[in-house]
Amino acid sequence: MLDDGTVQLPYVYRVTKYDPADRDEHGHYTGSEDTVSDHGEVEASYLQAVAAFAEDTGVEHLAVREPQVPSFAHFGSEPSVDGFGLAGLFPAGPTGFHDGAEVPLDTALELVRAMLRDSGAWCRLEAEGAFAVHVGWDQYLYIGSSRPCEEALARTRALGLFPERLDSSPYEMETDGADVQRPGDDEFWAGLRWAVAACRAGLLEETYVEGASRWHRLTRDSVDTVRAGIAPRARLAVWPDLCSDVDAVIGALPAEGLVECVWQDKGGRIHSAVADEDEFAELAARLSDAEAAALLSVYADERAPLFTAVMPDDDGVVRARWQTEPTPSDRNWALLKTLHRGEIVTGTVTRIADFGVTFVDIGGFEAMINIPELSWRPFDHPSDIVSVGQEVNAEILDVDPVRERVSLSLKALHEDPMPLLTVQIGQTLVGRVTKLIPFGVFVCVEEMENGFEGLVHNSELADEHLENPQLGIQVGDALLVKILDIDTVQRRITLSHRQAVSGL
Predict the structure, then answer these.
(1) Which pLDDT value is given to residue 462?
(2) What CATH number corresponds to the domain at position 433?
(3) Does the pLDDT at position 156 exceed 80?
(4) Residue 473 belongs to what domain range?
(5) Is it the case that residue 2 has pLDDT exceeding 50?
(6) Is the domain of 217 the same as that of 161?
(7) Which of 132, 166, 200 represents a domain boundary (last residue)?
């Protein structure tokens, strides 16, 4: 079993036209065979060998995996071919050359031919758990099977080729299992709609074949239309919107180096081009009529989209094995998928915002605690309850993967003490005045810091109708009050000084 979950085929053979006897002590070929295809008898022998192994394995169809085309330049040993050798191989045209596309054996053999000729397109050809064909450099062919294929081996030797047993193909797909494979599912597209509506995003890069991308400019109304046209198993990258100040974009061209420019023309079409300093003048001329544009780095360590995804199959499962560089947002998504409402988490208070929200680091993600969720008891400022650097336990109230928000509660881990006070309804006590307001005074009904406070309305301060019933009362004064009502839902305690005094 490989790290990505695929099954390692037990029988793997390297099939070549090179006699193993013609190798030096380092394994390098020293014979006279050409390293390019002869476009003739030897090439036909390679294809017959693949067909023989497929027949022995019982395979009639193969799936295209990780298809590639040259991205910037063709570095093959033969001249590049228009259409990368794919012309006529797919009923729907070149768009049929996508990850997961299932092709009959005859088509698969033509793809092998194109790869032997180094026509530009490359892919792995596989029947999951049963068969695989990988074409390497210099006419090296790797065939894997779930069966020993004795007849195919004999047939291959009879064709003048040399099969050699290996432990595995050097072109086997390898993943470390740690990559974030975010699916381009309903949740992803909901998040994209929100990002577009919030003006955080406006551009979608669709890599439908390694080395070839399509660009889509997004609006609130176009997201669903764009989604409907995305290629199967495509890799998606979301970027900020294009800039309407095209002159500023042109002015930002570097002194040297490669850049990718994406722009929208006046007809609404999206274009992209990779250019270096020798082509910047031509690029600037092309941008002169653009409606909006953006410059992106072509270097992997500088190319940072907002977030990424891989399109799942119709059953919702991501089977594409694209290697993506996860963004902070992708890592947040991966963490959020592990969190659930009601779960208790431990984190460290990182900051208390000016508007009162407390932020807590829970494994590299900042969750938030809104003011009402800090404590059951009254307080003046969040710093009365928590401090930066403090480790806290909290309950998860909500996980919103679309907006990348996690809401926590400290008070949910404690019993609400207010209901315990309801037994005191009707009782009289002496409390401390904490606040004067135009329509009454607040009085603390508990002898403790951050004790619950109740309101004595002006009408409950004195018997007679006074113009200023608060006259003579100051914050900190002791006041005799009677508890009239405790509303645990509205968090209100109603008090009366007048009734407390009359009851003496």
Answers:
(1) 80
(2) 2.40.50.140
(3) yes
(4) 418-502
(5) no
(6) no
(7) 166
Q: Which of 66, 174, 170 is nearest to 126 (CA)?
A: 66
**What is the β-pairing status of strands 11-16 and 162-166?**
antiparallel
d(CA 493, CA 212): 67
Residues 97, 110: Cα–Cα separation, whole Å: 13
The verdict on 197 and 308 lying in the same domain is: yes
Domain for residue 139, yes or no? yes
For 489-501, write each residue's pLDDT tens digit: 999 999 999 999 8
| Domain match, 322 and 193 both | yes
In a domain, 179, yes or no: no
Is the predicted pLDDT of residue 152 greater than 90, yes or no?
Answer: yes
**Which secondary structure element, helix H or strand E, spans residue 142, and what is its range?**
strand 141-145
Q: What is the pLDDT of residues 20-54, one digit of tens each?
A: 999 888 878 899 999 999 999 999 999 999 999 99
The tokens for 35 are: 């390293």
Two tokens at 448?
């403790």
Query: Residue 2 domain-assigned?
Result: no
CA dist., res. 65 & res. 62, Å (int): 9
In a domain, 220, yes or no: yes
Vertex 342 angle, CA 341 and 344, to 5° = 115
